[in-house]
Amino acid sequence: MSIPKQAGSTLTEDSAGDGEVLLRVSGLKKHFPIRKGLLQRQTGAVRAVDGIDFEVRKGETLGVVGESGCGKSTMGRLITRLLEPTGGTVEFEGRDITHLGVGQMRPMRRDVQMIFQDPYSSLNPRHTIGTIVGAPFKLQGVQPEGGVKKEVQRLLSVVGLNPEHYNRYPHEFSGGQRQRIGIARALALNPKLVVADEPVSALDVSIQAQVVNLLDDLQEELGLTYVIIAHDLSVVRHVSDRIAVMYLGKIVELADRESLYTAPMHPYTKALMSAVPIPDPKRRGVKSERILLRGDVPSPIAPPSGCRFHTRCWKATEVCRTTEPPLLELKPGQRVACHHPENFQDQQPQDTVLLSVAKEAAELVADEVLAESAETSAAVAAVAAEVSEAAEAPVAEDASEAAAAEDDAEAPASEDVTDGDNK
Ligand SMILES: Nc1ncnc2c1ncn2[C@@H]1O[C@H](COP(=O)(O)OP(=O)(O)OP(=O)(O)O)[C@@H](O)[C@H]1O
């Protein structure tokens, strides 16, 4: 087992990995004002996106997941500049596009396209699909070689539709076919980045796979870069190279798919993953543990202090209530914002467990999950201690102290949890 190197910085050039960065987002915020009364005075704000950093590399698919209301769609609309950010920056191909006006954005609109969730409401029912798919050419004043009609028909066949259906209306198509029309429209101007907001969640499960496969094939053929937004991991797990997990306007974990699946570090990621059934024949008969999160996502108008997930986390301690954990690259290619990460050394081992919160959350978390969580943290800490002992004497002391302290800290937590469960 290799010991993950701890990094002290947040988003660095290195953490962007090998690929060339197409889109870089730093400290991005969107606060929707809440206005009341006759004078429409601002009384508060919905902090839909509240300071997020990530980058999208050329040719990759970044999946963005999180429960309803965590700010995924707002993030998608911010990076496509359909919404004006409250703070932070968006850079596309190294150019700051955060505050470009409509005119300055026009050429950029060709490069960044969006596919919407609902194929029923996103297509104008009074227009033929020829007009719908051909609209981007008109808007951008582009005359494709061979004419608009020919190009639209080519696009229709690219997405698996009959080009002869050029003159039909959206209602004559099924949900899956309508989503293909939406995809054809998004591809019309040969974009570099496609942001797909829940592209398949309105479709039947059998059709979902077809549309996902189509997106996959198109990426390969056309060298597209995707940001795919979904509320659970079942869709993005198949198509994403890296996955960002959002909770209440923040990114809590960002990692490559493999790391996220084999060793998720944020308890929220672990909970999200436990909700996705894994069709693995090797695991047949193995009891899978589901982590049920209590209650809804808290309100983004007044998010919880410190770590926003602490009110639902079975590992929450005092520091989680008071101090917001930064998004740190704790393992190469895996960033997490947590004081008590899974599958890694506890960052605050001596901290006092928030009994009430942990107990409440633990009632919904299986004993096995808690035991496994305690075991992995202890195992990582123990190996860390061994390695540091071998490397350097003074460091060794610190590490074994930390490991011992973690054991101390784990013990009462597990007891509380068992108590809670027995109630
Ligand atoms: N135009 C708006 N004005 C005020 N609040 C908004 C607006 N758009 C979104 N919100 C709020 O911002 C928060 C984040 O919404 P958003 O749609 O981005 O979340 P989401 O994760 O995409 O959820 P869903 O999966 O349900 O679409 C929600 O609380 C939502 O009510």
TrEMBL record:
Q: Which domain of life is it from?
A: Bacteria
**Keyword entries, A-Z:** ATP-binding, Nucleotide-binding, Transport
Region span, Disordered:
390-423
- GO function terms (MF aspect): ATP binding
UniProt xrefs under InterPro entries: AAA+_ATPase (IPR003593), ABC_transp_ATP-bind (IPR050319), ABC_transporter-like_ATP-bd (IPR003439), ABC_transporter-like_CS (IPR017871), Oligopep_ABC_C (IPR013563), P-loop_NTPase (IPR027417)
Answer whether the UniProt record assigns the keyword RNA-binding to this protein: no
Q: Where is the composition biased (Acidic residues)?
A: 398-410
Pfam families from the entry?
A: ABC_tran, oligo_HPY
PROSITE patterns referenced in this protein's UniProt entry, alphabetically: ABC_TRANSPORTER_1 (PS00211), ABC_TRANSPORTER_2 (PS50893)
Domain ABC transporter residue range list = 23-273
- Which family does the record assign? Belongs to the ABC transporter superfamily.
Q: What is this protein called?
A: Dipeptide ABC transporter ATP-binding protein
Organism taxonomic ancestry: Bacteria, Bacillati, Actinomycetota, Actinomycetes, Kitasatosporales
